[in-house]
Design a protein that fits this description.
- By secondary structure, this protein is an alpha/beta fold.
- Helix content is 48%, strand content 20%.
- The chain has 17 helices and 12 strands.
- Strands 1, 2, 5, 6 and 7 form a 5-stranded mixed beta sheet that branches. Strands 10-9-8-11-12 form a 5-stranded mixed beta sheet, with helices on both faces.
- β3 and β4 form a beta hairpin.
- α3 (118-125) packs across α4 and α4 crosses α17.
């Protein structure tokens, strides 16, 4: 093939092909800049005409061509920078500054890591997974600087945390409910962490927030009340019902412990771990066999029977249509929970009292953080695929790549 044909395929202006070789499964091309091409300083970014120092050849990986690996030997010039009087290598716009790859190859690597692990991508590309990690992180940092700095503001948002390491290491994720995308995240789940998002979007955008769904964490509520002064704060239905279910399960565990001390084998068989899901299911979803099992259990154990009644009555709260109706129903339920002899339901009643108005806000606007739970599952899957992430900053970027605005599929829609 003639040199001008190869040059058209490469699509690299201002460079002349000195030599090209095809050997086995490798294509090697030598490129030299035209004399008229000005050198862009790698330090200050200006074009230098004076101060030439030297030049050298750099081997660079490019996209494969016709099933063959393509390597470019590019001549890079070095000039003395007029600003710091030091010698610097020129910056080439189609090459990564410190990496031995072209920008289009780096983008290809990043797109591949969006659908598989770094290890698998490295195997496919014939590169070390650490090299893939460095290339991918650099690309994501560049994209994040353009799309996520400052972070996008949302009218309706959901806030939740997800574990990223053992020993209570959490990340906070903010999701735009309307766009269904992660728009911000950070390491930690304190009030100061959440304050960081509101400060980043500015006071005007904070005042424009209409609603925020959350799990009821005091740190998130405190931050939202301080910054999003016009937002309706809604305690998510899923999390509230989950807390009531946990009170039922805690009661079961307590009664199981008592049964083992008393060597009550019948009760042990009825409330062991294998049967706990029957207590947590909605009664209208139980099979005939499970219904009979539950009736037998309630007949032999009064505390569990009382816990089941309280759980079933609480779920009916969300059948209320008007806020006033829900207010009266929730007040009566909390009173019944305090009257019961169940310690765990006393605790849940105290918790609901503290979040009383946020629970009732559900009946003003039925915004849910269920979308956050869905993204949390994707994030956990991402963590499992990568066998964990030592670099937390990289993990935050990967979350945006898989669940947010850095997803490469958004540019192809």
């Amino acid at each position: 093939m003639q040199k001008h044909g190869i040059k058209k395929l490469l699509n690299i202006p201002d460079y002349a092909i000195v030599k090209a070789e095809i050997k086995d499964d490798t294509i090697t091309i030598w490129l030299k800049p035209y004399k008229r091409k000005k050198s862009k300083c790698g330090n200050c970014g200006n074009h230098h005409n004076k101060g030439y120092h030297s030049s050298g050849w750099v081997k660079v990986k490019d996209l494969d061509m016709s099933g063959r690996a393509v390597y470019l030997y590019v001549q890079k010039r070095r000039y003395m920078c007029s600003k710091d009087r030091q010698v610097h290598t020129e910056s080439i716009n189609w090459l990564k500054l410190w990496s031995r790859v072209t920008k289009r190859y780096a983008m290809h690597v990043s797109r591949l890591t969006a659908i598989t692990t770094n290890q698998e991508a490295g195997w496919f590309l014939g590169k070390d997974d650490q090299a893939v990690y460095r290339i991918d992180k650099e690309i994501l940092e560049e994209q994040a600087a353009k799309k996520l700095n400052p972070p996008p503001a949302a009218k309706n948002m959901s806030v939740d945390e997800v574990s990223h390491q053992k020993y209570y290491k959490y990340l906070t994720n903010v999701i735009d409910v309307d766009k269904r995308k992660v728009i911000w995240n950070a390491k930690g789940r304190t009030k100061e962490i959440m304050d960081g998002y509101f400060q980043a979007i500015g006071k005007e955008n904070c005042e424009a927030i209409e609603s925020i769904a959350m799990d009821g964490a005091r740190t998130y509520i405190s931050s939202a009340e301080e910054h999003a002064v016009n937002a309706l704060l809604v305690c998510d239905k899923f999390h509230i019902v989950a807390k009531v279910n946990k009170a039922v399960d805690d009661t079961r565990k307590f009664e199981l412990k008592k049964a083992r001390k008393q060597d009550n084998q019948e009760l042990i068989d009825l409330i062991n771990c294998k049967q706990r899901f029957i207590l947590l299911k909605n009664r209208n979803k139980l099979t005939e066999k499970q219904e009979g099992y539950l009736e037998r259990l309630c007949a032999v154990n009064q505390p569990i029977y009382e816990a089941m009644l309280l759980k079933e009555s609480f779920v009916r709260l969300y059948a209320c249509v008007r806020e006033e109706e829900a207010r009266k129903y929730l007040t009566d339920w909390i009173s019944e929970a305090f009257k019961s002899r169940l310690e765990y339901f006393h605790d849940i009643a105290n918790s609901l009292l503290k979040k009383f108005r946020y629970i009732l806000n559900w009946f003003k606007r039925k915004i849910s953080s269920a979308i956050s739970e869905g993204f949390n599952n994707k994030i956990k899957r991402l963590k499992r695929m990568g066998y964990g992430y030592r670099d937390v900053d990289y993990f935050l970027l990967k979350i945006h790549q898989h669940c947010g605005l850095l997803n490469p599929r958004l540019t192809t829609l």
